[in-house]
Design goal:
Elements: E1 11-14, H1 29-44, E2 49-54, E3 60-72, H2 78-81, E4 88-99, H3 108-123, E5 131-135, H4 139-146, E6 151-153, E7 156-163, H5 164-170
Parallel strand pairs: 4-5
Antiparallel strand pairs: 1-2, 2-3, 3-4, 5-7, 6-7
Length: 173
Amino acid sequence: MSGVRYPDGWRIELLTKSHNRRAFQSGHEQVDGWLKRSALQSQKKHLSSTKVLLDEDGRIIGYYTLASSQVDFSDLPAQVAKSLPQRQLPVAVLAWLGVDSSVQGRGIGSRLLATALRDCHEASQAFAFIAVLLSCVDESSKAFYRRFDFAELPGYPMRLYLPFKLLEKLAGN
């Protein structure tokens, strides 16, 4: 996770009003709509944080949105919940991740995911959480995240989680 490399001239920035969100097209209306209509407003309200991947021309190539939430103890798999208190538990949320259709199939999504997970791990040094949680927009995105050891949350087939211990292992700790 720590050695994520993008093509020369590409960079990650916190989303600002100056970024051209209208040109972004991932092929998923929900993913595109979030970036175009909601991401900046949610960030201004301190509900989430969106980072954009820009190419050498400043065009948005991809993005991810992180937030925090809670999950009920009873929603966790037994092996994860066994040593945890029986209450609402803190989680990091990978709320959105999208890659522009012009660069899909080049490993950009994997690198954005690694960058997002690195951000989660760095945040864990200040704010504790038990897992990274996400909701899949379709079966294709679910298959993508399953390749990176995200597991299905019991009873919620489109919600996946990555336990903090696995996140630590991915970060090399």
